[in-house]
Amino acid sequence: MTANGVPLSQLREDAIALRRAGKSRREIKEILQIRSNERLNDALRGEPPPPWTNRPNAKDDLRAKARQLRDQGLAYDQIAAELGVSKGSVSLWVRDLPRPTRLSAEECGRRRDEAVASYWAGERVRRETSREAIRAAARQSIGALTTRDLLIAGAVAYWCEGAKSKPYRRSARLMFINSDPFIITLYLCFLRSAGVTDHQIVFRLCIHDSADVEQAQAFWVQVTGAEPARFRRPTLKHHNPKTIRLNTNEGYHGCLRIDVLGSAALYLRIEGWCEAIMNGAVTAAAVGGSS
Q1: H/E element holding 175?
Q2: Using CA atoms, how far apart are residues 145 and 201, in angstroms rounded to an integer?
Q3: Is the dihedral angle over the CA atoms 241, 245, 251, 252 positive or is it negative?
Q4: Within 10 Å of residue 14's Cβ, how many Cβ atoms?
Q5: Bridge partner residues of 205 (DSSP)
Q6: How far is 71 from 49, CA to CA, in rounded Å?
Q7: Phi and psi for 237 in degrees, rounded to 5?
Q8: What is the number of alpha carbons within 13 Å of residue 123 lying toward its C-beta?
Q9: Neighbouring-strand partners of residue 201
């Protein structure tokens, strides 16, 4: 029963008849004494608006798209977000259509996954573009390296990754190991700038025995540009099946160890360079902080 005592079935019959007679929604409300739009919507549900209400306007395409999306089961909020219009406009365009059935959990999950994938497809590109702009600006700010710059960078790289003499194990021989081709290349350039000749440098691959040792050796030969004869027998690490390793793909080439023969004097020079660098950094920071 309606608020004024008229059964909904009778109210619906009268409302549809008036609608088909060309009456507007406001006129139908006044004639039938309907007090709420919700009751009027119930009475006219499923009844398409008369042709005269479909006046051509700039949003006809949006209206058609909104009705299409509603038929596909999208909610008002989703349609509004998809078309970039207000929720009120969507309501005006599609309220005569039947409400879509509730989506299953599987369908909701599928649509959520598609939305997330669509978002990240564009977001990854935007983020990588931003990162590359930062990297490009940093590269430009460095400019060309001088021999002094290369000696500083190489000495610090060795002090981070190379073998060092200890009070309990005195050693003055250069031994450097790393898995990054760029660091390896930098270190080799440093050695040449420091006066080390090629015949002083020997290489050794260090890698898990489960990897493709031959392919890894060829990779490092290409990176260093050295003759294969300068590579000593690889050091193989026994693979423990219980260990979860992430470096097992085709990009895994192990680590390259670089030994320099007759390098005691250069090791002492690296110690001196690093002392000067560390002390200079502390002094520069103190001066900068006091200014």
Answers
A1: strand 175-178
A2: 23
A3: negative
A4: 16
A5: 256
A6: 17
A7: -100, 130
A8: 6
A9: 260
What pLDDT tens digit does each residue of the chain (291 aa) get? 444 677 888 888 888 888 888 888 888 888 888 888 888 888 888 888 877 666 656 577 888 898 998 888 888 888 888 888 888 889 888 888 888 777 788 888 898 899 889 889 989 999 999 999 999 999 999 989 999 999 999 999 999 999 998 887 778 889 999 999 999 999 999 999 999 999 999 999 999 888 889 999 999 999 999 999 999 999 998 867 665 656 666 788 999 999 999 999 999 999 999 999 999 888 887 776 665
Helix runs in the chain, H state only: 8-20, 25-32, 37-44, 60-71, 76-83, 87-94, 105-142, 147-161, 181-193, 213-224, 264-290
Which residues lie closer than 8 Å to 163 by C-beta, 6 or more apart?
171, 173, 174, 175, 176
Q: Are 243 and 210 in contact (CB under 8 A)?
A: no
- How far is C-alpha 211 from the chain's CA centre? 29
Is residue 189 a contact partner of residue 225, using CB atoms and an 8 Å limit? no
Q: Are 268 and 172 in contact (CB under 8 A)?
A: yes
Name the one residue in this structure whose structure tokens are 């660098």: 277
| Radius of gyration from C-alpha coordinates of the chain | 38
From the list 209, 161, 211, the residue with the least C-alpha distance to 182 is 161
What's this model's pTM, rounded to 2 decimal places? 0.59
Q: Which residues contact 141 (CB under 8 A, 6 or more apart)?
A: none
Euclidean distance between CA atoms 255 and 180, whole angstroms:
8
Grouping H, G, I as helix, E, B as strand and the rest as coil, residue 237 is: strand
The token duo for 151 is 């000696």
